[in-house]
Amino acid sequence: MLVFKFGGASVKDAQGVINLGKVVGNYTGEQLLVVVSAMGKTTNALEKLTRAYVDGSDDMHAIFDEIKNYHYQILHELFGDHHPVFDEVANTFVEIDWMIEDEPHDDFDFIYDQIVSIGELVSTRIVSAWFNHQNLTSKWIDVRGYIHTDNTYREGIVDWDKTRASIQKDIPALLGNGIVVTQGFLGGTSENFTTTLGREGSDYTASIFAACLGAESVTTWKDVPGILNADPKLFPDTIKFDELSYQEAIEMTYYGASVIHPKTIKPLQNANIPLLVKPFTHPDAPGTVIKQNAINKFDKPVIIVKNNQVLLSVSATDYSFVSESHLSEIFAAFAKHNVKVNMMQTSALSFTACIDFSPERFERLLKSLKETFKVKYNSDLKLITLRHYTDSALQEIIGDETALMKQTSRNTAQVVVK
Ligand code: ASP
Ligand code: MG
């Protein structure tokens, strides 16, 4: 069997959904499980809605209406005025209407997952209905009953034993009856609350299903020809890799290459399942294959740019040296507030870390560090990582920007710039 994953860009409008039907239509002889993300920029819009709700801001209903209208427009273009999927979609939106009628009481991350998950619940309803409309028999399943996580909201940790058991119990039989369509990015807790697996987590969903079902391969269909050495929106002369090893792919995603979610590769590597990254506009093109014993060929360095970074400096209030026990306390705070360190350095008097800026987590982290330490920070920075760099490539990247922190090892160079 095959697992396909379609990201938001592939289903950003009616034309995208139609194209998705065509891509999938080429595989009618195969058992197929299709994982779909939220349409276009819906997840960002739902994040905005969550913030508007939590902040009690006036534009909350306007934001939500825009999200609804966007989906209804696509539905109209696909199905005309009447189709049972209209009710399915409306019923999904209504859950949010009920929720946002009340004042927000719960933890932000919890609210976030309950609201943001709507994007995938709706997109998969539409895609599944479209498949059936095209005589591609499909079955919509609610992933929250299959991917079981703990209650780390916005970063659900998968309970593999439970997940494997659920998937293996039901899915093989369903695959025999048509295309199984399900949501990327989501999981469910034992108390039946919704979790998300981290932004761009749909790749990980595909990988979980593939690993549990012993798939032949996973294909993630993208708006790029495959894995490129850099983001083509930022750099003009990119090259595509024909193949990459699991190891290299893991390194790339670790440093923030957004083409694949970081947690995707490991389950596939363990089960020796290749991951294909292919363009949904040219389904026959070879794309990039990530697999065992791949030939890594780096004619150009891999460039990974992470925006919205904060450089945080922590020092002892009495100006004493940064000791191991300070460091362990600092790291405990990072771990507790779920803040990942992208790059770090210690000097005699301070510890400096480059982290992703996420307002709620950052506030919590600051508060807890400030109980014991002096903290300074610089925000709105960029972290650039070069894999397989050359000194000249590094110099060219930095240009005349000020490097606030820089680190090089044999294969990897990293620099934080303004
Ligand atoms: N829709 C989610 C996001 O945009 C998950 C995904 O696209 O993989 O983060
Ligand atoms: Mg998405």
TrEMBL record:
Sequence ranges assigned to domain Aspartate/glutamate/uridylate kinase in this UniProt record: 2-277
Family: Belongs to the aspartokinase family.
Native species: Mucilaginibacter conchicola
Designated name of the protein: Aspartokinase
Domain of life: Bacteria
Lineage, broadest ranks: Bacteria, Pseudomonadati, Bacteroidota, Sphingobacteriia, Sphingobacteriales
UniProt keyword annotation of Nucleus present: no
Molecular function (Gene Ontology), one example: aspartate kinase activity
GO CC annotation terms, alphabetical: cytosol
Keywords: Amino-acid biosynthesis, ATP-binding, Kinase, Nucleotide-binding, Transferase
Catalysed reactions listed for this entry: L-aspartate + ATP = 4-phospho-L-aspartate + ADP
